[in-house]
Amino acid sequence: MQKRIGRNDPCWCGSGKKYKDCHLEMDEKIKSYKLRGYKIPPRKIIKNKEQIDGIRTSGKVNIAVLDYVAENIHAGMSTEEINQLVDSKTRELGGIPAPLNYEGFPKSVCTSINDAVCHGIPSEEEILQDGDIINVDVSTIYKGYFSDSSRMFCIGNVPDESRKLVEDTLEAIQVGLAEVRPFNRLGNVGAAIHEFALSKGYQVVKEIGGHGVGLEFHEDPFVSYVTRRDTGMLLVPGMVFTIEPMINLGTDEIFIDEENDWTVYTEDGAPSAQWEVSVAVTEDGYEILAY
């Protein structure tokens, strides 16, 4: 049970302001939604301004690392070379690669090619070929704050259907972002993306989704992309989470590589695409903190 806070007490968010000058008004509005049966975000996932500033700065490092990958990625390079680029650039900028040793993950970045949905492990033996599509998923710790985003790259002469999948998946991110605003519901983000993907003839991975981020690598809420409208957690200012749908050209069925226990593949071997952004809910909409 949460301790009652007086109007003149320090706000629970850690801002240093009096409660009445900080979150009191928002809390009263959230309470009105709770009384109507809405799922309410726990206070621990609502960030204050200082925390948002820290995540934003971490995101700038993350973006710079992905820009560096974009400048150097090419056919004929190994995914281990991408790992080395990410590791060295992240450290050069004062950050720490968040994936390295996270729950045993052995590398500093995830590299997922063609039918690899996510969590691909870089390897010296895995060489980028003309026609490949690859997701490079970068996550950074900078001064204790976490950021997370990924991009798709088309290597050389990519088949039209794979290139369109990549482009449409990026558009799906924009469709999802259009639903991010205070006092909307998280389920509407996933529903909009799912509806869009189905309209293009694709399938969306059900088992894996986005997540809260900022003070930890993975926080609540879980962000599904196969939700129904007007369901899910209430969106309130200060929430930070990723939008990262995994959209498949074929079936939505997947499996995990038994050898490394990490890499997820499409069951039918068809291509999969994923873009990822970290987004903060603001007073009047959203702010992308990493892309």
Our Rg estimate from Cα atoms comes to: 20 Å
- Helicity range: 25-40%
Distance between the termini: 37 Å
Give unreliable regions as ranges.
none
**With helices defined by DSSP (H or I, 4 residues minimum), what is the helix count?**
5
Structural class call reads alpha+beta
Biggest sheet record: 4 strands, antiparallel
Q: What proportion of the residues form beta strands (DSSP E)?
A: 15-25%
- The run of helices and strands is HHHEEEEEHHEEEEEEEEEE
| Mean of pLDDT | 97
Protein name: Methionine aminopeptidase
Binding site for a divalent metal cation 2: 148, 211, 244, 276
Catalytic activity: Release of N-terminal amino acids, preferentially methionine, from peptides and arylamides
Organism: Candidatus Fusicatenibacter merdavium
Protein model, in words:
InterPro entries: Creatinase/aminopeptidase-like, Pept_M24, Pept_M24_MAP, Pept_M24A_MAP1, SEC_C_motif. It comes from Candidatus Fusicatenibacter merdavium. The chain has 291 residues and is of the alpha+beta class. The chain has five helices and 15 strands. Strands 1, 2, 4 and 5 form a four-stranded antiparallel β-sheet that branches. A three-stranded antiparallel β-sheet has the order 3-12-11, with no helix packed on it. Strands 6-10-13 form a three-stranded antiparallel β-sheet, with helices on one face. α4 runs antiparallel to α5 (186-199).
